[in-house]
Structures are given as structure tokens and as C-alpha cells.
Amino acid sequence: MPVLIKINIPSKAGFHHRFEWNSREYKKLIGFFCSPDVQLALVFNDGRQVFLRQLDYEKMPSVPPNSRVIFVEKELDNEIITGVISHNNNEGPLAVYLILEK
């Protein structure tokens, strides 16, 4: 059964926010989405595999979250997922959502 994990990004001054998350007991990434009006980059295999260089969510602020999901089939083995979320407007919370399976 899929599980939704929310990674909160502190809302502070600045343009780029880096985050890391360890997959631990989760074995598969099914999909992901993030806050609107941002750009997202994701790296896997402890920083050795660029998965997503620059997904532009800036063009999708009016699209509902369920329609913003990017579906993938990525096997995980206790790896660290690293990402950078970039935005022009630092008001409001920022988050990346991972859809995972155990």
C-alpha cells in the first residue's frame, strides 16, 4: 500500500533550499510532487545519480496537487534522497511529497 511522506522545507530568506531524506524501510519510490511555483532537483544513490535536474513547477501553481504527481518506478535500498527546491517567493510553507511503498 502506498504511503505519502511529506518533507517540510523551512520557509526562510533565500532562493535555494537543500534537503535530505533516508529511505530506510521503504523499498520503492512510486512518485513525487511538490509545492507550486518552485523548481525541483532530485539526486539518488548518495549523490551519485542525478534523477531530476530541474523540474519547473513554476508553470503549475493553479494545477491541483493530484494532477502534479510525477510517477516513477525507482527501487530504493536504504539510500539518501537529496534534493534542492528553488523558489522566487519565500512566503508560505514549502514541501516535497514522496509516494513510497514498503
Q: How does this model look, in words?
A:
The protein is mainly beta. Helices cover 0% and strands 57% of the residues. It has strands at 3-9, 16-22, 28-34, 38-44, 49-56, 70-75, 80-87, 94-101. Strands 1-8-3-6 form a four-stranded antiparallel β-sheet, with no helix packed on it. A four-stranded antiparallel β-sheet has the order 2-7-4-5, with no helix packed on it. It is globular. 21% of the residues are buried. The model has no long low-confidence stretch (mean pLDDT 78).
Please work out how many helical segments DSSP would assign.
0
- CA radius of gyration is 13 Å
Structural class of the secondary structure composition?
A: mainly beta
Quote the distance from N terminus to C terminus: 8 Å
Stretches where pLDDT falls below 50 for ≥5 residues? none
The biggest beta sheet reads:
4 strands, antiparallel
Strand order of the largest sheet: 1-8-3-6
The top-level CATH class is Mainly Beta
Q: Kindly estimate the percentage of residues that lie in beta strands according to DSSP.
A: over 45%
Sketch the topology as an H/E string, one letter per element: EEEEEEEE
Work out the count of structural domains. Answer: 1
What share of residues is helical? under 10%
Mean pLDDT rating: 78
Total number of strands = 8
Second-tier CATH architecture: Sandwich
* Shape type: globular
What CATH calls the topology is Jelly Rolls
Features of the shown structure:
8 strands, 102 residues, mainly beta, Jelly Rolls
Secondary structure blueprint with pairings:
Elements: E1 3-9, E2 16-22, E3 28-34, E4 38-44, E5 49-56, E6 70-75, E7 80-87, E8 94-101
Antiparallel strand pairs: 1-8, 2-7, 3-6, 3-8, 4-5, 4-7
